[in-house]
Amino acid sequence: MQRWWQGADRAGWRSFTGAMAALGVALLLALYSAAAAESGQKWRAWAAAMAALGLAGWVAVRVVPVLARRTALRWLVFPVRYRLTREGTIYLTLLVVVLLAALNTANNLLFLILAAMLAGLLISGVASRATLAGLELRLELPEHIFAGQPVHAVVTLRNNKPMLPSFSLRVVGEAHRRGEAILTQPVYFPYIGRRQAARQAVELRFARRGRYRQDSFAIQTRFPFGFLEKTRRMEMAEELLVYPRIEPTEEFYAMLPLLSGELESYTRGRGHDLYAIRDYQPSDSARFVDWKASARTGTLKVREFTREDERRVLLVLDPRLHGDAAAAAALREPFERAVQLAACLAWHFYELDAEMAFHTEGYSTPLVRAGEIIYPVLRALALIEPRPATAATSVLEELPEAHELYKIILTSQPRGTIPTRLWTSSYLVFFDSL
């Protein structure tokens, strides 16, 4: 009690106590006025009634506004949408039937039943509004989200009311104006105590890459009787970025052995320090034969050199759709598969701890360890959009002269227009083959 009194609004409590005392005096004067009127003392009755009315008016004009300004009632003022449920329709139909029967028969019992039914509606409205009041919503999402993979999010609902709990709440995501939504399934909270928070885990899944945005959420309740479903809209802008799928596709599994072989053949022997001398194999190049060792042993021997870097790749995605309008429209679906394939390749080199650079129109990264740039690359792939091939120069012509890098290029550019310098140091994937 002492701690409560120290933090209490003493001026407000004094105003409230004075108002209640004045209203008590007004009640006594009203009772005295009624008694004086019955005994025939009209002037006393009139004076007591006017004094009671004056005290009540003084409280209404001077004290009530002061108390209203000191009372935090903002949690009671919020817009609510109403939807009549099936149970509510049946209840209102019965109420109308009882109303007509009471008016036609003038039966006091029917009037009592009608009053009880109307009181039930009133209680339902007050209780449900109090349940929706004083709530605070928060949605927690992981930092990195991939399309097609389940995401475990946490919905936290806090009840800030100092005295009343909340019952039977559902949190739903309202659709964005473009039809996109983050929370696509309702989350149910059976009970939240006063000044307490409840957390519910929910599994989300996003079918495609890109940016998702939700401007608001809705909290619904049918408490206590289920006659009306009341919905409170809560403005809370949430935005997240979904990376492309990194689940290996059939195209990825088909090209991985070929890609690994070409990458090995391109990087073999790029070092300058002698590593070992071994027996010749049919796949070895004749320029690596060690003729002195071969003459000394009588069998062909080859030299192996240390590799300065076995995995140094440049991943290139050309977003331009070459061809006429019909061809470009037909390439949109292969373009999405190309984006997914690029994400799979980037993730593959990240798992291999390779050195990687990424290049596309308007964005490029330096050659570093894939772990340092994997998420910026995935972010760029999540936001990339196909573009018409209207520029004079293509992305492939703008590629830097990096002879030490093996290039993996995904493009829709016709095969006969690929620059010659890229054929010997690149693995080309064309959109129409995906």
Order of helices and strands: HHHEHHEEEEEEEEHEHEEEHHEEEHEEHE
- Beta strands, count: 19
- Total of DSSP H or I helical runs spanning 4+ residues: 11
Low-confidence stretches: 268-272
Helicity, as a percent range: 40-55%
Mean pLDDT figure: 81
Describe this structure in words.
By secondary structure, this protein is of the alpha/beta class. The chain has helices spanning 2-7, 10-38, 42-70, 86-105, 108-132, 250-267, 291-297, 325-330, 332-351, 370-383, 420-423; strands at residues 81-84, 135-140, 145-146, 150-159, 166-173, 187-192, 196-205, 210-221, 228-243, 274-279, 301-305, 312-317, 320-321, 355-360, 363-364, 368-369, 387-388, 406-411, 426-430. Strands 1, 3, 5, 6, 8 and 9 form a 6-stranded mixed β-sheet that branches. Strands 12, 14, 15, 16, 18 and 19 form a 6-stranded mixed β-sheet that branches. The chain has a 3-stranded antiparallel β-sheet with strand order 2-4-7, with no helix packed on it. Helix 4 (86-105) packs antiparallel against helix 5 and helix 9 packs antiparallel against helix 10. The longest helix has 29 residues, at 10-38. The two termini are 75 Å apart.
